[in-house]
Amino acid sequence: MEKGKLLVIHGGAPTAVMNASLVGVLKAAARQEAITGVLGANGGTGGVLSGKFIDLTTFPKDNLSRLAMTPGSAIGTSRTPLYAPEYERMREVLLANDIRYVLMNGGNGTMDTCGKLAAACAADGILVGGIPKTIDNDIAETDHAPGYGSAARYLAATVSEIAQDLHGLPIHVCIVEAMGRNAGWLAAASALAMEGGYGPDLIYLPERDFDEDAFLADVQEVYRKKGCALVVASEGLHKAGGEPIVEPIFRTDRAVYYGDVSAHLANLVIRRLGIKARSEKPGICGRASFAHQSPVDRMEAEAAGMAAVQMVAGGRSGAMISFNRLQGDNYRIDLNEVPIEKVMMVERKMPRDMISQEGNGVTEKFTKWCMPLLGGPLPSFFHFPER
Question: Which homologous superfamily does the CATH classification assign to the domain defined by 151-287+349-374?
Answer without folding.
Answer: Phosphofructokinase domain (3.40.50.460)
